[in-house]
Amino acid sequence: MNPSTSALLTDLYELTMAQAYQEQGMVEPAVFEFFVRKLPPCRNFLVAAGLEQVLDFLSGMHFTQKELAWLDQTRLFKPGLLRYLETLRFTGAVEAMEEGTLFFPHEPILRIVAPLPEAQLVESRVINLLNFQTMVASKAARSALVAGGKPIIDFGLRRAHGAEAGLLAARASYLAGFSGSATVLAGMTYGIPVYGTMAHSFVQAHKDEVQAFEHFAQAQPNNVVLLIDTYDTETAARKVTSLAPVLRAKGISVKGVRLDSGDLADHARRVRRILDEGGLSHTQIIASGNLDEYRLKDLLDSRAPIDSFAVGTAMTTSSDAPSLDSAYKLQEYAGRPCRKRSEGKATWPGRKQVYRYYAGDGRLDHDVVTTHDDRLSGIPLLQAVMSDGRRLAASPSVTDLRRRTADRLAQLPESLRALETAPAYPVQISQALQGLAETVDRGLSHVKEI
Question: What is the C-alpha to C-alpha distance for residues 103 and 367, in angstroms, rounded to an integer?
């Protein structure tokens, strides 16, 4: 059993509610929407990501006989629910923003319309997939904006919170503008370019640093990127320039050197000078070592001669904002608009659409959230992607999604591109949606009085 595809990858209360729904015949169409209540600190926008994995999960959702047998032995569920689950498949519809779309608080990025038990059962996994990749893509996009076109590689697998997190972080960061990943499985699974150099252990395993460099070059003649800070960085750079003619005679060139510790800007300047004086002006400098968007900005502002960067832990864990205040809430059941009124967690009722408006220079100007049937003049962001449990189009490649994301990031106003918190992007709630909320509230007040 693959845990990441199991229908049991859910919270217990999804199943206990499903049993009650099934017993009471509550199987009319339900509308749930996924959205984020507020932006994390220092975030001016979010990047929608994870839709493809959600559609894969919905398309293949089912309970195996082994899973049903386990549920049976828990004695928590009645035979009627187990019979229902045995043939359960997702039969609903999905509307969503394309991956890579920039979005803001209170804007639904995905809507599921399905019989109530189906729409309820998928809640936990839908949140899990959208929340994580959106969080990582939004973090990675900040580094991509700061880098201004310089390549950035994902080095985060080893400190990711689990195998799936590492793999999906590679996907989300590539979608958001990274150039590739060190995670090999990401290359096979998603077609993401993979990159790698060498570890300090490789150098330490040799008695001589030059010998280590030479052995690596012979093993990887088309990808000679040497890690030069195991002992003394500048001394190692001089060893590289001395070794280069020997390698050149064998048809091997030194593609790059990697710096992973210390004052990266200062080391880069010194190493650049050594390489240039040694005839290796073509050899690039790659920097790694606890980098994030803030350190990238500092390095670039200092004009450090670094050609590309490797970013790991901070991006994969979204260390400064490791969670999103996201939710998947019931907005309508059996044609009746629903609204949560909890303090600090109130929702807007009904099926919604988000319309985007642009300024004269093509940059984002404002959004309007309105009811699904309220036709406005802007660009509607939610589009149908699944009907009757089936996809409506083939999956786009991650490369195509990356290109679309870059186009959308280019539409950001300058204030929203900053690492510091900017004035909030205008998201208006339409009169139609406010009116629907008032109507629902009146109904709720009537119920309360009774």
Answer: 9
Q: What is the rounded radius of gyration, in angstroms, for the C-alpha atoms of the chain?
A: 26
356, β-bridge pairs: 367, 379
pTM, whole model, 2 decimals? 0.94
What are 426's two structure tokens?
A: 């205008």
Cβ-contact 42, 421 below 8 angstroms = yes
Which residues are CB-neighbours of 177 under 8 A, at least 6 positions away?
Answer: 140, 141, 143, 144, 145, 147, 152, 402, 405, 406, 409
Is residue 86 left, alpha or beta, with left meaning phi > 0 and alpha meaning psi from -120 to 50?
alpha
Edge-to-edge strand ranges of the sheet holding 110-115: 336-337, 326-333, 29-36, 110-115, 93-96, 383-387, 390-391
- Report the largest interatomic distance among the alpha carbons of the chain, rounded to a whole angstrom: 91
Query: Whats the size of the chain, residue-wise?
Result: 450
The CATH number, out of the four listed (3.40.50.300, 3.20.20.70, 1.25.40.10, 3.40.50.2000), of the domain defined by the range 137-316: 3.20.20.70
User: According to the model, what pLDDT value does residue 37 have?
Assistant: 95
Contact assessment for residue 394 and residue 386, using Cβ atoms and an 8 Å cutoff: no
Rounded Cα distance, 313 and 332, in Å: 40
CATH number of 3-135+324-449: 3.20.140.10
Q: What is the pLDDT of residues 94-130, one digit of tens each?
A: 999 999 999 999 999 999 999 999 999 999 999 999 9
Q: What single DSSP character describes residue 161?
A: S
Distance CA 351, CA 353 (A): 7
- Decide if 216 contacts 224 (C-beta within 8 A): yes
Query: What pLDDT is recorded for position 156?
Result: 96
- CA–CA distance, 51 with 96 (Å, rounded to integer): 8
5-28 confidence digits (pLDDT tens): 899 999 999 999 999 999 999 999
Domain boundaries, the chain: 3-135+324-449, 137-316
